[in-house]
Amino acid sequence: MLSLEKEKTLLVIWTLSFIPENTRYMEPIFHVYIDEAGDPGVKAKVTDKPTTTDWFVLSAVVVRASRDTDVTDWVSDMIEAVRGRGTNGIHYRNLSDPNRLRVSRMLGRKPVRIFTVASQKDSMRKHQNAKLGRANDREFYNWCLRLLLERVTEWCYWKCSSENLEIAPARIIFSERGGHDYDALKIYLERLRAQTLTGNLVLKKRGIAPGIIYPDLCKVSPHAKIAGLQLADIAASAYFQAACSVSPRHNIEPAKALKARLARRFDKGAPANFGLLLLPFPHQGTIAVADRPIFTHCGYRFPVG
Asked: 103 and 91 in contact (C-beta within 8 Å)?
């Protein structure tokens, strides 16, 4: 393991370092499966009352490439556990409450890391950035994805360094959803990668760790065809169900079962703000008291009153 001082120094190094271009041709060490739950739209609502469209959740499940064949077995075991023989994979939304908890507990015992961005969108509906302009649906999705991938790539970079491995790219697989322009998404990822390497990020607090993401190693696949995407569906759906207190099936227990798999920065501390990121940020607003328990459980602290 790296010393704490070296761990802190790494964050400075990767923002300034040059990663050889042939890194993209190395075999990936990690596979990153990404899925979402909820509505990414940020158009104005017709009511001020809370609704199930207020939350959007984006999750990544990171698995070592050497374990990728195990993922198919894990999902097969889940299908058997929920008596889903003959079904087309695991679809969290179709499971009963006991089976939702069952598959979440099973995933919570696997050697994976989970990253989740959970956004309560009211603070974004009228948001306007002086540099970027007013938020629209695509920009909002890309913003959530950037926040997710900043944390995923930082963890992958740190993990390679802490194990004295060469920095290697990750293979990223998105669950195919209607309405997304995935070609534009790849262009966005390439722009973030370039801006990070040149120090020209529009928003500079974090960046995509160099050497981890290359658009030609990103692909889109139907949920049913890739077992890893079904794990990402469990994660995204469980945290959506936990965050959205007005959902008719609101339940924080499945998400609590995944807490042990949420990533921690340098694998230490609580997952709040890293493995589980809540939007809005504190300076932008807060969320309803009824929506807070899962975030409190994972290390967030909210003002009293």
From this structure: no
The three state secondary structure string of the chain is: CCCHHHHHHHHHHHHHCCCCHHHHHCCCCEEEEEEEEECCCCCCCCCCCCCHHHEEEEEEEEEEHHHHHHHHHHHHHHHHHCCCCCCCCCCHHHCCHHHHHHHHHHHCCCCCEEEEEEEEHHHHCCCEECCCEECCHHHHHHHHHHHHHHHHHHHHHHHHHHCCCCCCCEEEEEECCCCCCHHHHHHHHHHHHHHHHHCCCCCCCCCCCCCCCCHHHEEEECHHHCHHHHHHHHHHHHHHHHHCCCCCCCCCHHHHHCHHHECCHHHCCCCECCCEEEECCCCCCCCCHHHCHHHHHCCCCCCCC
Q: Which of 216, 230, 101, 210 is nearest to 166 (CA)?
A: 210
pLDDT in tens, 26-83: 889 999 999 999 988 877 777 778 888 899 999 999 999 999 899 999 999 999 999 8
- Which amino acid belongs to residue 2? L
Pairing verdict, β 218-221 and 55-64? unpaired
How far is the CA of 12 from the CAs of 160, 164, 167, 210, 275, in angstroms? 16, 18, 15, 12, 20
Which pLDDT belongs to residue 283? 82
Q: Encoding tokens for residue 117? A: 């961005």
Spatial distance between the Cα atoms of 42 and 40, rounded to a whole number of angstroms? 7
CA distances from 132 to 20, 55, 127, 139, 228 (A): 31, 22, 10, 9, 34
Q: In the prediction, which pLDDT does 197 show?
A: 65
Residue with tokens 């589980």: 276
Q: Which amino acid is at 267?
A: D
Phi, psi dihedrals of residue 49, rounded to the nearest 5°: -75, 150
